[in-house]
């Protein structure tokens, strides 16, 4: 069967129109995608200075926090030397006109606060003397620079004396 020129031209025209419609659909989809990508790029470029400033602020905050951690760690002795602390405690006991019944230094234990590990020695100090002198002793333990890393945990008063629980901290990075 022979097709006429007219039918052939119509068929070529239909194929040409179908190809043009297909190209238009593909192009319009890509144009929409390009517009979306352009919008996202513009948004990202607009946010870049803010994010860069925030990054710099966070880096400054990190540096400040590291400095504060180092400064805080420097306040703690690197090791706990029982003889040295024992001498300090005996000096303070004498200065406060107290009597110390016993002084035993247990082995240091580890304590972790966040990412920082401390060594802690927990002491029980049975002292006897006047109430005023006992409070003076506690104040010195809390404020003496040799005991900057000391925390008085409890005080139990009983008939002319007291049992004072003290934790001595040292920093171990």
Describe the structure.
This protein is of the alpha+beta class and 173 residues long. Helix content is 57%, strand content 24%. It has two domains: 1-75; 82-172, Alpha-Beta Plaits (2-Layer Sandwich), CATH 3.30.70. It is built from three helices and five strands. Strands 1, 2, 3, 4 and 5 form a five-stranded antiparallel sheet that branches. The model has no long low-confidence stretch (mean pLDDT 82).
Annotated CATH topology of the largest domain: Alpha-Beta Plaits
Tell me the name of the CATH class of the largest domain. Alpha Beta
| Helix/strand class | alpha+beta
**How many domains make up the 3D coordinates?**
2
Which radius of gyration do the C-alpha atoms yield? 40 Å
Overall morphology? rod-shaped
Count of distinct strands = 5
Quick one: biggest sheet?
A: 5 strands, antiparallel
Task: Round the mean pLDDT to the nearest integer and report it.
Answer: 82
Distance between the termini: 95 Å
Q: Could you estimate the helical fraction of the residues in percent? A: 55-70%
State the order of secondary-structure elements, H for helix, E for strand: HHEEEHEE
Tally of contiguous helical segments = 3
| Poorly predicted runs of 5 or more residues | none
Q: How much of the polypeptide forms β-strand, as a percent range?
A: 15-25%
Looking at CATH, the homologous superfamily of the largest domain is Ribosomal protein S6/Translation elongation factor EF1B
């Amino acid at each position: 069967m022979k097709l006429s020129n007219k039918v052939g031209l119509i068929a070529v025209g239909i194929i040409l129109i179908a190809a043009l419609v297909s190209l238009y659909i593909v192009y319009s989809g890509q144009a929409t995608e390009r517009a979306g990508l352009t919008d996202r790029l513009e948004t990202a470029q607009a946010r870049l200075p803010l994010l860069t400033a925030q990054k710099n602020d966070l880096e400054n905050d990190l540096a400040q926090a590291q400095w504060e951690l180092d400064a805080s760690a420097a306040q703690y002795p690197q090791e706990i030397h029982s003889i040295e602390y024992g001498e300090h405690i005996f000096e303070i006991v004498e200065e406060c006109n107290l009597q110390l019944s016993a002084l035993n230094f247990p082995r240091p234990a580890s304590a972790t606060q966040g990412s920082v590990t401390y060594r802690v020695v927990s002491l029980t100090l049975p002292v006897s003397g006047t109430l005023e002198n006992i409070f003076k002793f506690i104040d010195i333990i809390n404020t003496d620079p040799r005991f900057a890393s000391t925390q008085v945990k409890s005080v139990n008063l009983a008939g002319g004396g007291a049992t004072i629980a003290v934790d001595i901290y040292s920093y171990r990075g």
